């Protein structure tokens, strides 16, 4: 099989959410041969949520109950960076509009330097309006806010002096001498499957973070990304695709064997990077590592 850069979600939520276990998990995953480690971002688990989880929420179960226990993504990445040497460290995804760009730029820069230039900053919009309310950020206009956030991050990372002046953010021209290890800056990946999100990837991002869907559906989405990139004068051949798989008991992807099969199919479809979230298959971190070992072996066959 063509080489696949395979990643894992760090133990961050639900039964696996133990900050003290992250370092050991990260080091063990790197030793097994995994190429990347990833975090997600969940701020709230409302009792009466404004929206249902788009991955299968119902009136009785509006979102996975595991979301009520969630380790901060930056803490998880910092611990993983300190415990590893080679794996890339990414977010799939941070809820971008909830963050101040100047604070996010500082944190991402610090993480990139701590890790020796291994950060992939994945950004998305979140599906839960309650999170925006709690963070004091307007839900309306969130797409434009993410676009501008990406612009401001790149300005802070590359300009000297750097500033930003708009109706949304006023950042006085300033010196930012702490620069990312990666030049010109860490890759900015964008998640999302809507037409607007796909066009954002093509216009602005360094890559796309899709979730596993049938090949023809993902193919049509990728065509939107490439068209948008070409319209923006960018080379779509330089864009990365990091496919996410979320195996869940009772679904079409419910076991290590199912995941391995889907990963091999994804390679045949042209994917060279993927990440697997084992939170719903494992009852504890030890079991998650056992499954990770089994999966890595199965994918190599």
Automatic annotation (TrEMBL):
GO molecular function, one term: alkanesulfonate monooxygenase activity
Keyword entries, A-Z: Flavoprotein, FMN, Monooxygenase, Oxidoreductase
GO biological process: alkanesulfonate catabolic process
One protein family per Pfam: Bac_luciferase
Keyword Flavoprotein assigned: yes
Every Luciferase-like domain range: 15-260
Superkingdom field: Bacteria
Listed name of the protein: Putative F420-dependent oxidoreductase
Organism field: Amycolatopsis jiangsuensis
């Amino acid at each position: 099989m063509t080489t696949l850069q395979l990643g894992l979600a760090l133990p961050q939520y639900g039964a696996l959410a133990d900050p003290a276990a992250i370092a050991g998990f990260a080091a063990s995953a790197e030793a097994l041969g995994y190429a990347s480690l990833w975090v997600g971002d969940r701020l709230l688990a409302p009792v009466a949520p404004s929206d249902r989880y788009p991955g299968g929420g119902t009136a009785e179960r509006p979102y996975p109950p595991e979301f009520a226990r969630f380790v901060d993504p930056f803490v998880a990445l910092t611990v993983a960076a300190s415990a590893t040497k080679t794996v890339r460290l990414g977010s799939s995804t941070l809820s971008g509009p909830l963050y101040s760009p100047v604070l996010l730029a500082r944190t991402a820069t610090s993480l990139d330097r701590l890790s020796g230039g291994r950060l992939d900053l994945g950004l998305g919009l979140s599906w839960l309006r309650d999170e925006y309310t709690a963070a004091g950020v307007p839900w309306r206009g969130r797409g434009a806010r993410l676009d501008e956030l990406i612009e401001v991050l790149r300005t802070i990372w590359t300009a000297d002096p750097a500033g930003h002046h708009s109706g949304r953010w006023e950042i006085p021209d300033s010196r930012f001498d702490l620069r990312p290890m990666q030049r010109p800056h860490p890759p900015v990946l964008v998640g999302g499957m809507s037409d607007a999100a796909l066009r954002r990837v093509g216009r602005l991002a360094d890559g796309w973070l899709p979730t596993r869907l049938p090949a023809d559906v993902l193919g049509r989405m990728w065509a939107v990304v490439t068209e948008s990139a070409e319209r923006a004068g960018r080379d779509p051949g330089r864009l990365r695709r990091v496919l996410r798989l979320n195996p869940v008991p009772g679904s079409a992807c419910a076991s290590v064997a199912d995941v391995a099969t889907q990963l091999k199919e994804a390679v045949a479809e042209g994917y060279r990077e993927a990440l697997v979230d084992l939170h719903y298959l494992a009852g504890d971190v030890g079991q998650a590592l056992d499954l990770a070992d089994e999966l890595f072996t199965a994918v190599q066959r």
